[in-house]
Amino acid sequence: MATTHNLGFPRIGGQRELKFALEDY
């Protein structure tokens, strides 16, 4: 699900979302 969210919100802040997803995992 994290990957989908990251791909669904790339312009909002890919780097930020990526870090959040990685931390969440």
UniProtKB/TrEMBL annotation:
Biological processes per GO annotation: amino acid biosynthetic process
Bilayer-spanning residue ranges: none
Residue ranges occupied by any Cobalamin-independent methionine synthase MetE N-terminal domain in the UniProt entry: 4-25
SUPFAM superfamilies on file: UROD/MetE-like (SSF51726)
InterPro entries the UniProt entry points to: Cbl-indep_Met_Synth_N, UROD/MetE-like_sf
Pfam family, one: Meth_synt_1
One term of GO molecular function: 5-methyltetrahydropteroyltriglutamate-homocysteine S-methyltransferase activity
Official protein name in the record: Cobalamin-independent methionine synthase MetE N-terminal domain-containing protein
Organism: Marinobacter nauticus (Marinobacter hydrocarbonoclasticus)
